[in-house]
Structure formats: structure tokens, C-alpha cells
Amino acid sequence: xxxxxxxxxxxxxxxxxxxxxxxxxxxxxxxxxxxxxxxxxxxxxxxxxxxxxxxxxxxxxxxxxxxxxxxxxxxxxxxxxxxxxxxxxxxxxxxxxxxxxxxxxxxxxxxxxxxxxxxxxxxxxxxxxxxxxxxxxxxxxxxxxxxxxxxxxxxxxxxxxxxxxxxxxxxxxxxxxxxxxxxxxxxxxxxxxxxxxxxxxxxxxxxxxxxxxxxxxxxxxxxxxxxxxxxxxxxxxxxxxxxxxxxxxxxxxxxxxxxxxxxxxxxxxxxxxxxxxxxxxxxxxxxxxxxxx
Length: 293
Description:
Layout: H1 2-14, E1 19-20, E2 56-58, E3 61-65, E4 68-78, E5 83-92, E6 97-107, E7 112-122, E8 128-138, E9 148-156, E10 160-168, E11 178-188, E12 193-203, E13 206-217, E14 224-225, E15 229-233, E16 242-254, E17 257-266, E18 270-279, E19 284-286, E20 289-290
Parallel strand pairs: 1-13
Antiparallel strand pairs: 2-4, 3-4, 4-5, 5-6, 6-7, 7-8, 8-9, 9-10, 10-11, 11-12, 12-13, 14-16, 15-16, 16-17, 17-18, 19-20
């Protein structure tokens, strides 16, 4: 089996100059529930302030020094689109920036970030740009199955997320069976695309696939690899278990057409190739009504 797996990896590596669309998901086996792992967040999601014109601040101590507000001890900053908690926060009214340190928790309308150090500033268009180092992140705005991981550096704007030396997974927080590890990951929220450079896909910490550049759809349908499947089986009359690895690829041909191909490497039987084509047929029932089957 080891030779087959090595051969399969070599085949995939040869054709992986640019991989398109892999989305590794972890579907819960049990019915969804609020206390299940798939609903866990990095920290409890906070309610934003209802006053759009104010910034609510709480801290054990505060002082104004050199045109900066210095907040210390159990600091909480809350606005209509931002929540921040940290041990210490420095706010500069001059350039609308802040620097938070110590047990940082950051929340905007889509992402949660935790770490030891975070800075934020409003750009010329009044958009908030947040940056953090050695941080955990989670796309809680995407709902169930939102991306999460660890990154040495994250830069977050309303339209884009840039991750450096990071992991990326759609599994529940702290249960990343599948994950992508990459030098850089760029998540374009406007274009609904993610791009990773020097990406390695790992299953339970074991590297199974590498590609220098890798792109996928952040949400919805998109062409690309689906979740690989590794399993063991017992042949009739055999004493030892055999192993198999199945790698499917999904082609999103059109809104009404798709095609699925898969390569399976079986230690006892060799390689198996399979394909499945699907198309929606929409007969016109009446001039004013169409239906799809």
C-alpha cells in the first residue's frame, strides 16, 4: 500500500502546479445542537453597541497622556461594528488607531480574533483595518463550518483577510482533523475566493497533498478536490486488513451541470477510476411555469 500511496502522491504533485477549488469540510455526524463542537466559537460572541455614534469603553484604570488614552485592566471597547477586550488598550484620537495587548479578543461583523497583540486603524474610507500577530481566528459570520485556524500574522479589512504562515480549516474549533497549512493565504471576501501559496493539506497532522498555489471558493459551489477518504477493509478469506485512499475531484460545469471523477488506490486491487455526470432537466410544463427534475 505504501508504494501505491507514494505513486498517487507523485501523480497528484505532478499535476498540482495550480490546484483549484478544494474545500475540506468536517460534517457533524450528530444532529446540530447549540452545545455541539461545530457550534463552538473562540469566545462567546458579544452584542454590539446599539448607539452608532458612540464608543463604549470600560476599564479598571484610565488616563490621558501625550494625546492618547491609556486604558488598563479588564478593558472592553464596544461600538456598532466592533468589540474589543484586552488587558491594556492605547487609543489615539489623532489617527483613529488603537493598540491592544494581553489576552486580546477582537470581534467585528464576520471574524473573531484572539492573541497577545492587536492593532486597528480606520483608513481614508472609514474602513477598519485590524492586524494581529500569533493569533487564532474564526469566520463566525459564515455560520456552521466557518473557517478557523492559527496564523503568525493576520490583516483584516471588510473586504479581505491576509494570513501569513497559517493554518486554515473548516472543522470545528480545536478539532481540525483536516487543515491547510500555507506560507500565505489571501481570502478575498468580495470575490468569494481564497488563494494559498505553498499549501500543504494535512489529515490528523499527516501531510497528504502539496501544491505551490491553490485556490478555492469560500462559499457555494466551485470546481476542485473534495474531501479525500482513507479507510481499511478486509478481503474475503484474507487475514490482514487492506487500505484504500479515495481522492475525488468535482467539476462545476454550469449551474445545471456537474461532473465528479475519483481515483481510488487500493492496496489489494490497485487503482480504480470512477466518474459521474449530472444534469438538471427543466421541462416546460406551461408557458408560464417551469420546473426542474
